[in-house]
UniProtKB/TrEMBL annotation, chain A:
Origin species: Streptomyces sp. R28
Renumbered residue ranges of the record's region Disordered: 106-125, 160-196
All copies of domain VWFA, residue ranges: 200-367
Record protein name field: VWA domain-containing protein
Xref: PANTHER family: BLL5662 PROTEIN (PTHR39338:SF6), BLL5662 PROTEIN-RELATED (PTHR39338)
Biased composition (Basic and acidic residues): 106-116, 168-186
Pfam families: VWA_CoxE
CDD domains the record matches: vWFA (cd00198)
Highest taxon of the lineage: Bacteria
SUPFAM superfamilies, A to Z: vWA-like
From TrEMBL, chain B:
Any single Pfam family the record assigns to this protein: AAA_5
Gene Ontology MF terms in the entry: ATP binding; ATP hydrolysis activity
Species the sequence originates in: Streptomyces sp. R28
Domain of life: Bacteria
InterPro entries per record: AAA+_ATPase (IPR003593), ATPase_dyneun-rel_AAA (IPR011704), CbbQ/NirQ/NorQ/GpvN (IPR050764), P-loop_NTPase (IPR027417)
AAA+ ATPase domain boundaries: 33-207
Designated name of the protein: AAA family ATPase
């Protein structure tokens, strides 16, 4: 393949464009840039439209990238004709290693300290910590809870898969049986059998990061991080908009992951429009298959700013798609709690399990419920 | 083919209309031999692209429909065990005693059943459609990744089978789950949008030449209006064509609001959507396009 040929200046412009794309959050890796240069090479590099399409086809890998691509392309190669749909106002540039700890948690910590009852510090505090409300933890305890959370893993209840594996009983496995026969030169042998395997169901987590959830958001997101390390788990944040953070959550290091999530989520501590965002999730992901047969966990206090009727309708829809819908409400544990928030009341009829989510013990129980234990 | 324009012309000759981006995508896929990764809503023509490409290139279309649990023996090759056994018995009856020879014969190419992927490697030229890759598991993706980078397959008993001319590969995904970056990175990525009115009308006219111009125009206008509604499943181009065909089958030269409502079932597949669509003023939409 022809690599970097032709005028250096032109290639420099293309490379600069790729760098700008990376800065805007598109994963334009070296391999992709190489493909981009190859593509431009076989097209007519003078033509703006060809450069546009060559870049879009090679550098983008996701629908979410396209919007950023339009923006960066316009700023690098000038306006020209408006390429396709209108681009919304540019989001703030990604912050790295700044927002996460100082921002998201700093806030919650400040609130936490204010709310904390004057609890005596205990030497062997793990057991106590397990049952303490996240909202009332101080900084040291928070750190400890984080470490404990990291050990939690979330695996969905099992379902039968299409795959088979050797087993003592089950259908006859022609492959292995014939192989066995061949090994014996065609003499009769015992039939080998195989059976279907079980696979964990996909788990989809919808984490509310609105203002009313601020004391819990950090702990819940960390729980989500620990949970998201099981394959096939998907994570979204909901607040004033829906953000998919599965990719950000994939950092192994929880702190790095939290920083990435903090940078990706534009709506910390905003209001909640659960109904609308649930619909956005179902339209774009859920109905296509992500929620089908999955275990969907909503982590929210159910404070709905929008129309509860819409939320009820979308919850019914979700309930029809998903295998199980689990709602985790950290406020459920408060003495005298009743699901009176309009959103919560609207959602409850379509929920299979309604669990607490305020403490480590509660999250452990949540993990058990997701795994299929019947204690709703 | 020399450039995107030529690719476009060839594809349009088969009845598949492409826009600028897709023309460039197909050209690059053909020229550089990269797989084309197609994403977009259902019914926007992702799968149809593969058959159009096959027709344009005059090559067979080999289709692999992915599903959960698909593995190499369903996608790549399998040994024909009953025939092997039969051969063994026949050899025994004929009194063959040379076991090495027999063993060698058993793993002959004629006992190998080529599944779609191997068939695509062996057929030159060919168009390979890997449909709904998002339904397969990620192990299968890794396997596909290896195949697409080498265009060769190693059968332990036979050795390596390599494609002299790599097939044109089209992968489609409905985005039910994220396909691994490593796979996407080796592909050209194209997002399919719903077409605008003029393009969609042209597609309907091309696919259904027997339908009257007026009916095609009205149906397209209605579908575009439906898409602007807040539906669970906005209709794709495939549904537009279905609807026009349904109305044509009913002998309608044009659509009235009543007829549109009566045949809504060929476009909208959810009760909620049908209810919401009733709120749409069909007569008004038809009036704007009707004159």
């Amino acid at each position: 393949m022809a690599g970097v040929t032709g005028v250096f200046a032109a290639d420099a412009a293309l490379l600069g464009f790729a760098r700008a794309l990376r800065a805007a959050g598109v994963d334009a890796s070296a391999e992709r840039v190489h493909a981009f240069l190859c593509a431009v090479d076989v097209l007519r590099p003078g033509l703006r439209a060809d450069v546009y399409w060559a870049g879009r086809l090679t550098l983008c890998g996701d629908r979410d990238d396209l919007e950023r691509y339009e923006r960066v392309f316009a700023s690098c190669f000038g306006g020209g004709e408006p390429a396709g749909h209108a681009v919304p106002a540019a989001p703030a540039p990604r912050l790295r290693l700044l927002v996460g700890d100082a921002g998201a948690e700093g806030r919650t910590r400040a609130r936490g300290e204010r709310d904390a009852p004057p609890a005596p510090s205990l030497a062997s505090s793990t057991e106590v910590l397990r049952h303490r409300d996240f909202a009332g933890l101080d900084a040291v305890e928070r750190e400890q809870v984080r470490r404990l959370l990291a050990a939690l893993a979330l695996r969905g209840a099992v379902r039968r898969s299409a795959r088979r594996r050797p087993a003592r009983r089950g259908e006859v496995d022609p492959h292995r049986t014939v192989r066995e026969l061949l090994r014996r030169g065609g003499e009769p042998a015992l039939p080998r059998r195989h059976a279907r395997t079980n696979r964990p169901r996909r788990v989809v987590l919808l984490v509310d990061v609105s203002g009313s959830m601020a004391p819990y958001a950090d702990a819940l997101l960390r729980f989500t991080h620990a949970a998201a390390h099981t394959r096939g788990t998907e994570v979204f944040t909901i607040g004033t908009r829906l953000t998919r953070v599965t990719r950000e959550m994939s950092h192994r290091d929880p702190d790095l992951a939290m920083t990435a999530v903090a940078a990706a989520v534009p709506d910390w501590r905003g209001g909640t429009r659960l109904g609308e965002l649930l619909r956005a999730f179902l339209d774009r992901w859920g109905q296509r298959g992500m929620a089908r047969g999955a275990i969907v966990v909503v982590l929210s206090d159910g404070w709905e700013r929008g129309d509860p009727e819409l939320l009820a309708a979308q919850m019914r829809r979700l309930h029809r798609l998903a295998h199980r819908v689990i709602w985790t409400n950290p406020r459920k544990a408060r003495p005298g709690y009743a699901p009176l928030a309009a959103g919560m009341a609207a959602a409850l009829p379509s929920v299979d399990a309604f669990v607490e989510g305020h403490s480590l013990a509660a999250l452990e129980r949540l993990a058990a419920v997701v795994r299929g234990a019947d204690d709703a | 083919m020399d450039g995107p324009e030529q690719v476009r012309a060839r594809l349009e000759a088969t009845g598949y209309l492409v826009d600028d981006g897709l023309a460039v995508a197909c050209f690059l896929a053909l020229r550089l031999g990269w797989p084309l990764f197609c994403e977009g809503d259902a019914g926007v023509g992702k799968t149809a692209l593969a058959s159009a490409l096959a027709e344009a290139l005059d090559a067979p279309l080999i289709r692999l429909q992915c599903h959960e649990g698909i593995d190499a023996s369903q996608a790549l090759y399998d040994w024909d065990f009953p025939r092997q056994l039969l051969h063994l018995r026949a050899a025994e009856a004929a009194g063959v005693t040379d076991s090495d020879l027999l063993e060698g014969q058993l793993y002959d190419r004629r006992f190998l059943i080529a599944r779609p992927l191997l068939r695509a490697l062996e057929t030159q030229p060919s168009v390979l459609l890997v449909d709904e890759i998002d339904r397969a598991d990620d192990e299968f993706e890794a396997f596909l990744l290896e195949l697409l980078s080498e265009y060769s397959v190693t059968v332990p008993e036979l050795g390596t089978l390599r494609a002299e001319v790599p097939p044109v590969v089209v992968l489609t995904s409905n985005r039910t789950r994220e396909v691994h970056d490593a796979l996407k990175r080796r592909c050209l990525y194209h997002w399919f949008d719903h077409p605008d009115f003029a393009r969609e009308l042209a597609i309907v006219r091309r696919r259904l030449p027997q339908v009257s111009a007026r009916l095609a125009e009205q149906v397209t206008a209605l579908v575009q209006a439906l898409r602007a509604q807040d539906l669970l499943k906005p209709p794709g181009v495939a549904e537009t064509i279905d609807w026009a065909e349904a109305l044509d089958t009913l002998g309608a030269g044009e659509v009235s609001a009543e007829l549109a409502v009566a045949t809504l079932g060929s476009v909208l597949k959810y009760r909620e959507d049908a209810e919401r669509a009733r709120g749409l003023d069909f007569a008004a939409v038809l009036a704007t396009r009707g004159a």
